[in-house]
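Our preliminary data section would be incomplete without showing what the modeling component actually yields. Below, a chain of 138 amino acids is followed by its predicted structure, encoded as tokens that our downstream tools consume directly.
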Amino acid sequence: MISDDDVTNAEMLKRLRARIVTQMLPPHRYDGILTLNDKEITFDGRDLLDNNRFRLVIPLNSIIDIHLGYDEKFTGKDSKGKSYQLLPIRVRYRADLAVKTVYIFSEYKGLFRSSSSEEVYKILLNLLNTERSNQSIV
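Predicted structure:
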């Protein structure tokens, strides 16, 4: 996972890209486990730059939108202009009176450069649709 703040921070992106070249990783700052349920998305892991524990909980009712793929901020190209092969799930949500964005690469398999982002995106989309239809009933 990587946040839009990291993507737009040139120095941070430079440090993360250095890790990508040496370890063939997709561009991300946090490594961990993503859990989805009918109330929230939870990411438990660690910050790869300082090795500290990292936890992010995003309630489904705070999610503004989700998107499979890159966007104008996170273009999906490395410093040499090559496109990344893996697609992230972009999650835009409200937190502390601000709009935040994270990009999630799910079930990354390094050697084969594959992920299940499309499957997780469909599950998340279904959870969001269920959450929103339940809200309209209440």
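The chain has one domain: 2-137. Strands lie at 2-3, 30-36, 40-47, 53-59, 63-68, 89-95, 98-104. Preliminary results of this kind motivate Aim 1 of the renewal.
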